[in-house]
Amino acid sequence: MPLTLRKTLKFTGYTIGGILGVAALYIGSALVLSAIPVAKTDPNAPADVTVFLHTNGVHTDIVLPIKTEQIDWSQSLPIANIPSQDSTMRYIAFGWGDKGFYLDTPTWADLKFSTAFVAAFWLGSSAMHTTYFHSLAPGPETIPLHLSHAEYARLIAYIQRSFALDAAGRAQHIKGHSYGQDDAFYEAHRVYSFLYTCNTWTNNALKASGQRACLWTPSDKGIFHIYGR
């Protein structure tokens, strides 16, 4: 076998081995760290506000009442920004993710390798996705969480910090983009990667508000496992 060919095959073998090794380390870390629970900060906190943890099977959202005595989300995120403009909505779901992935991949059938690559390796920007509901009921994909006023205040602050505001301090609506009649997108802070995913954002929201969470997780499975689902 020519020397050049041997070197090429050797390099290719090392490259493939390295990629497989990193993938195995990532999967192993995700399985181990997502199984390590972070306990609720105050187990005796009063149940003043009910919020929900929701998944579509891949991506998690935190769902909150649109209006409580602590905040009216419609003041900063106008209902006019969703196509239906339905003012009877009672809940708003917050999700964070890669902007390109969100806007260019409304369904998994639309996923492109280039979109996934940019999202995984810190090459894109991010967006907040808000989805509105008339009602929400507990179920396999929806877990109710009961927060104190103090815990809810920390959750509000965490979500607000995720929005990239304009010079006037307003959320920046990404016009012309929605998955349906009852959702909207906004500019956000941070960059998505395989180390900080949409579900990592949700998991950190739980930590910020003193709720049970994973030590770290890139997937919805880790979070829902902590809650016995």
TrEMBL record:
- The answer to whether UniProt assigns keyword Transmembrane to this entry is yes
User: Per the record, a Pfam family?
Assistant: DUF2459
TM helices/strands, residue ranges: 12-36
Q: Which InterPro entries match?
A: CHP02117
Keywords from the UniProt entry: Membrane, Transmembrane, Transmembrane helix
Q: What is this protein called?
A: TIGR02117 family protein
